[in-house]
């Protein structure tokens, strides 16, 4: 399922009304519920209203063939986030590229990784909680969630450095522009552009380092790079690796 905004081609088109913004917000929340809730499946929606209009400019598309057609007709449909993406990211790709990139990511994301991630997150979280017991206080985001995420990025994804604060700022600047900058505020866009360039350059150096040190630690980044040698026809290129790793870090 995807939600798309229909382009307004008329030069005299009026700006969206507040009620349309409210409807768009409600539709986005509904899409989230439908995708998460095991009870609220999309079967009835696909059968009865496969193309559900919300307001003047939003359509909820639920059938795969329709989704593929929408993604392929960029002249007719405007996507609210794709033009803000910093690189070659899966979510901004066309149908054929989307399938290829998704298949590659599924190749390197192995079932056995779940246990590894659980142990890694549990170990880091227990260490942080025990440390907080001595003081009786904990700032949950800064002292628990973020350090555990940093450990996952460092040891599992394989993207250490340049420092937790810098990496967090990159992610915040990019997230704000991609998902929240509906008004196209120039300052927000410039911060995201700088963050995207810096993060892309950092990842390029990590890719070069992985390529120059075969047999190193098993990380997602190393698996993606090694796929270029083992299956060059299907593997992600360097720009696609960097774009998708940036997407993982932001998400």
What does it look like?
The protein is mainly alpha-helical. The chain is built from ten helices and four strands. It has a four-stranded antiparallel beta sheet with strand order 2-3-1-4. Strand 2 and strand 3 form a beta hairpin. Helix 5 packs antiparallel against helix 6, helix 7 crosses helix 8 and helix 8 crosses helix 10.
Shape descriptor reads globular
Average per-residue pLDDT, rounded, comes to: 82
**What is the rounded distance between the termini?**
19 Å
Helix content: 55-70%
Brief description of this entry?
The chain is mostly helical. Helix content is 62%, strand content 6%.
List the helices and strands and how they pair.
Blueprint (H helix, E strand, L loop, with lengths): L1 E5 L11 H19 L6 H6 L2 E4 L3 E4 L2 H9 L4 E2 L16 H14 L4 H21 L6 H18 L6 H17 L5 H27 L7 H11 L7 H13 L1
Antiparallel strand pairs: 1-3, 1-4, 2-3
Helix pairs in contact: 5-6, 7-8, 8-10
